[in-house]
Amino acid sequence: MQHRLERCRERLAAEQLDGLLVTSAANRRYLSGFTGSAGALLVSAERAFLLSDGRYAVQGPQEAPAFEWVLLSDAAPLAKQLPQLARQCGLQRIGFEAQDLSVAQYTKLQHELQAAEVPAAWVATEGLIEGLREAKDADEIATLRRAIAITDDAFAAVRPMLRPAMREREVAWELEKAMRERGAEALAFEVIVAAGDNGSRPHARASDAQLGVGRPVVLDFGARLAGYHADMTRTVVLGEADDTFWHVYNTVLEAQQAAAAGASVGKTGAEIDALARELITAAGYGEAFGHGLGHGVGLQIHEGPAVRRLSQARLSAGAVFSVEPGVYLPGWGGVRIEDLVLLTDAGPETLTQSPKDPVLVIP
C-alpha cells in the first residue's frame, strides 16, 4: 500500500493541498487496505490517519499498518477529531471528496474547524484518487484474474443446465450459487437474465418469465473477490435461431471483437467506442446501441476509465475495462456480448475466457 500512499501525496502536491480527507469507501480501501464499513482517512505529506469506531479497533491497525489509528466515538466523532489533527499537521488547505461528502457533512466539518479556530480551508476535489485507481497494479490484476476465472467457471457450470422451461430467476440463482461455490465473496452486481423482449432493456431484472425456445437470452453477471469485481455478458438462444438473431448477433460479435482487439494505450475512450459503434451503425442498428461501449472495473463495478462517445481521456497501461456493445430491439429482444480487457504496453489482453457460441442444442 505504501506506493499508493506516495502516489496520493504526489497528487496532493500537484493540487497544492496540504492534506486530503478520504471518505469514499473504495478510495479508503485502495489507499489503506482497510475493509471496514465505516471510517475515513486523513493524508498529509508526512502523516496518514485512519479514523474509525471501536468495532474496528483491532481490524483497523492490522489491515492498515501504514496509518495511525484514531478512535471515533459519540463523544469524539469525525468532525470533532479533524480540527485537532489539522492543527497537529499544520494543514492550511485540506481537500475533500466532493462526490462523496454530503452537504450536511461538509457543513458540520466547516463549523467545527471554525469553532476550533483552526485556520484551514476545505477544498473540493473530484477524481483525485479515482484517477490513480485507473491503472491497476500487479496485485490488483491478479485479483481481477481470479474473479474473472470464477465468473467463467460459473458460466461453464450453468450453461448446460439451461432449458426452455427455466425461469429467469432460476437461472440467476444458479449463476449466483455457482459463483459462490467457486469462491466468490459476493456478487459483483445483481445478476441479469433477460429472455426475449426482456432483453431489449439493457438493465432488465430477472423475472418469472421462461427462457423459451428460439429467443435471445442475455446473461450478465460477475463475481466479487477481495473487493474486486468481474463483469461478463453472454447472449444465448435455446434451440434453433432465426435469421434476425444471427444478423444481430454477428453484428454485435464483430463489433465487440474489433473494439477489444483495437484498444491500445494512448487511445481515448471515444476512439475505442467508435471501433464498435461504427460497425453497428453500418449494419443499420446505430439507434439500437444506446449506451457506452464500456467502463473500468476494480473496487467498484463502474469506475474509470470511461469508454464511451464523449470520453476524451487517454487510456494508460494497466487499465481494465469492459467491452460490451449491444443491440436492443423492443418487441424482439436484445444481444449484448461483454469481455473484460487489460491494456498493456504490448497491446490489449482479453481476460474473459468464456466461449461465445450462442446456440444451445436442447436434447
Polypeptide structure, described:
- There is one protein chain.
- This protein is α+β, with helices and mostly antiparallel strands.
- It has 2 domains: 132 residues, Creatinase/prolidase N-terminal domain (Creatine Amidinohydrolase, Chain A, domain 1); 223 residues, Creatinase/methionine aminopeptidase superfamily (Creatine Amidinohydrolase, Alpha-Beta Complex).
- It contains 10 helices and 20 strands.
- The strands form 6 sheets. Strands 4-3-2-1-5-6 form a 6-stranded mixed sheet, with helices on both faces. It has a 4-stranded mixed sheet with strand order 8-9-12-20, covered by helices on one side.
- Helix 4 crosses helix 5 and helix 7 packs across helix 8.
- The longest helix has 21 residues.
- It is elongated and about 75 Å long.
- The termini are far apart.
- The mean pLDDT is 96.
What descriptors fit this protein?
35% helix, alpha+beta, 6-stranded mixed beta sheet, Creatine Amidinohydrolase, 363 residues, 4-stranded mixed beta sheet, Creatine Amidinohydrolase, Chain A, domain 1
CATH class of the largest domain: Alpha Beta
Query: How many structural domains?
Result: 2
Radius of gyration: 23 Å
Helical fraction: 25-40%
Output mean pLDDT.
96
The quaternary organization reads as single chain
Inertia-based shape:
elongated
Q: Distance between termini? A: 52 Å
Going by CATH, the architecture of the largest domain would be Alpha-Beta Complex
